[in-house]
Amino acid sequence: MTTNILDHWVAGAAFTGESTRTAPVYNPARGIVQKDVRLASTADVDVAVQAAKAALPAWAEASWAKRQQVLFAFREIVNARKGDLAAILTSEHGKVTSDALGEIARGLEVIEFACGIPHLAKGEFSQNVSTGVDVYSVHEPVGVVGIISPFNFPAMVPMWFFPIAIALGNTVVLKPSEKDPSAAIWMAEAMKEAGLPDGVFNVMHGDKESVDALLTHPDIAAISFVGSTPIAKYIYETASANGKRVQALGGAKNHMLVLPDADLDLVADSAVNAGFGSAGERCMAISVVVAVEPVADDLIAKVTERMSTLKVGDGTRGCDMGPLITKEHRDKVAGYLDVATADGAEIVVDGRGVEVDGAADGFWLGPTLVDKVPTSSKVYTDEIFGPVLSVVRVDSYEEGLALINASRYGNGTAIFTNDGGAARRFQREVTVGMVGINVPIPVPVGYFSFGGWKDSLFGDTKAYGPDAIHFFTRQKAITSRWLDPSHGGINLGFPQN
User: Is 294 helix (H, G, I), strand (E, B) or coil?
Assistant: First the structure.
């Protein structure tokens, strides 16, 4: 069987490069290879970086109005053709169509934020700081930006970064996941159609070689990354050691604290939605329900009832949940169920034997619920990144809070309660970057910033929102004095007020 090969995108056109290495791109619902993607060499990456570097001076000098026009046009293209992009996401990632459309909607939110960025990128001006002396600041582009994005959100995560970077006058080299790379090319083509000059937005496919080439390239000024914590740490250390500013968003183990006064029907709905949406392949998925007794048994019964209604299968067939991204990842996630049993946990719902509406060779694992998970178990400590929801029972709010705060991760968390005092206390005391109150996935809207604490974020800058202005620009302060004709003479002292 002959497969198509997906090329890179450099300087406004498809680019083959010198590397002959490729990787398979699967349809995970069918378990078959649908195309291959080129894997760039270090030399190929340099071609893309040089194209971005060559395009930088003119784009950095382009008017705010020109940049806005391109972003507005891009927004309209994405919105009008979101069905086409969603089909690509479902085909290569496996998430169901409705979930894919939701991903695009969140990406559009950031594009829209970028359209209004001139207001946020304004500098400051102080007149007469000394007699006849003014001081003002401006924000200038950092230069060529490298973006390394994960497989779980092939459209949304790149949209968290490149529209803002480009709106602020930077040029971009995007390295998408080699597991589902086609969305990146679709967006590059849409940006060109929107009027973006060639070279401003480039896409370089690849694996570790291309990543390392970006991290060490002398002409890359900044790196934006989303992925697992070990890789985020590596990205941060390597890129910063090579003189780049870095925002590296890592993994998570998101807890949902359920107090006895919570609405258990709302909790059950939220746990199922947040635990099994996108087959659990979300860095903001709820993977641990921390149930303050005596609610655990009732809550588990409600969650189990809802899980029984979920339809697993091909994302194009109106199912609730699709496959996992690869067979290897499916097998890894399924392996945690053996660990759970060995560690004394109780598997309430086992997703390994799930009936699916899809091909037999798809990478299937159904929604899984595990009760009484020991906090020493890898089922609790690891970021599983699959449809496995763990329940940990605690006796008090204090015990639940201590559990969450002891985690190495600090991405997202949620509390479910009808007690406003408890909720307010939780939001102050929990050491996590994003907090939901009766909201299971507290991803901020586009005009706030996304990111966690502890081992969930390396660097001091979060994604999109106001933090993005700080990250993708350099501030320049100017002290100015225009001498009037009456001035004269030499004075070696300090200026007089």
Answer: coil
pLDDT number for residue 474: 97
Q: Using DSSP, state whether 414 is helix, strand or coil.
A: strand
Other C-beta atoms lying within 10 Å of the C-beta of residue 478: 11
| CATH code for the domain in which residue 275 is found | 3.40.309.10
| Structure tokens belonging to residue 270 | 């939220």
3-state secondary structure of 97: helix
Inter-axis angle of helices 82-92 and 182-193, to 10 degrees?
Answer: 160
The range of the structural domain enclosing residue 324 comes to 254-437
Nearest alpha-carbon partner for 287 in 380, 393, 400: 380
SS3 57: helix
406-465 per-position pLDDT tens digit:
999 999 999 999 999 999 999 999 999 999 999 999 999 999 999 999 999 999 999 999
| Structural domain count of the chain | 2
Catalytic center residues: 283
Tell me whether residue 334 is in a domain: yes
Q: Is residue 496, in this structure, part of any structural domain at all? A: no
According to DSSP H, which parts of 250-367 are helical?
Answer: 264-276, 296-307, 327-342
CA-based diameter of the chain, in Å? 90
| 3-state DSSP percent of the chain in helix, strand and coil, to 5 | 40, 25, 35
Encoded amino acid at 454, one letter:
K
Residue 42, pLDDT above cutoff 80: yes
In whole angstroms, what separates CA 385 from the centre of its chain?
A: 14
pLDDT of 3 > 70? The answer is no
Average pLDDT over residues 335-340: 98
Identity of the amino acid at 123 = G
The residue-averaged pLDDT of 374-389 equals: 98
